[in-house]
C-alpha cells in the first residue's frame, strides 16, 4: 500500500473520530441542559404550588380572598433524585399532599431524550383501605425553545402537543389532588 493510500485511510479515520467526539460532546451538553432545565422547572413548579396551597388554605383570606381551610403540603424534593449514570434513567420527585390523598410529580429522562414530567395520584380509595391505589397521568415534555430557554409541551390526552405553562402543571396537580 502506497504512502498516499495510507494517508487517505488515516485521514478518513481521523475525520470519523473527530465527528464521533463532536457528537458525543453535543449529547453531553444537551443532557446537562435537560438536567438543569428539569431542576429549574421543578423549582418553579414548587413555588407556584406553594403559592396556590397558601391561597387554598385560607391564609390569603386576609387579602380579601376566600380560602377552603385545606392544608396542602408541597414537598420538593420528596425523594432523593435517581441518576443511575449519564445514560439514565434520571428522575426527580415532588409531592402535594392532603391527609387522605397525594399527587406525586416526577420527572424522568433516559439517555439524551427530552425529560418528561408526569403525575401519579395516590389515594386510599381502593376497596382494601390498607392498600393505596396509584393512577398515572401524563404531563409534559421539556423542550428547548428556539432562541433559548425551555418550552413545556403536553403529552397524552386531548392536549397532546399543546404548549403548557408551569401554572398549568400546578393547576393539573391540584385538580388531581382535589378531584374524585
Description of the structure:
With 180 residues, this protein is an alpha+beta fold. The protein has one domain (11-18, 21-178). The chain has 2 helices and 7 strands, in the order αβββββββα. It has helices spanning 3-57, 166-178, and strands spanning 73-83, 90-98, 101-109, 116-123, 133-144, 150-154, 163-164. Strands 1-2-3-4-5-6-7 form a 7-stranded antiparallel β-sheet, with helices on one face. A hairpin with a 5-residue loop joins strand 5 and strand 6 (150-154). The radius of gyration is 23 Å and the shape is elongated. The model has no long low-confidence stretch (mean pLDDT 85).
Q: What attributes characterize this protein structure?
A:
single chain, 7-stranded antiparallel sheet, elongated
Short summary:
The protein has two helices and seven strands. The chain has 180 residues and is of the alpha+beta class.
Strand content: 25-35%
Count of DSSP strands: 7
Largest sheet: 7 strands, antiparallel
Low-confidence stretches: none
Please report the number of helical segments: 2
Taking the alpha carbons of the first and last residues, their distance comes to 77 Å
Question: What structural class should be given to the helix and strand makeup?
Answer: alpha+beta
| Rg calc | 23 Å
Strand order of the largest sheet: 1-2-3-4-5-6-7
What would you call the shape?
A: elongated
Order of helices and strands: HEEEEEEEH
> What is the arithmetic mean of pLDDT?
85
Total of domains: 1
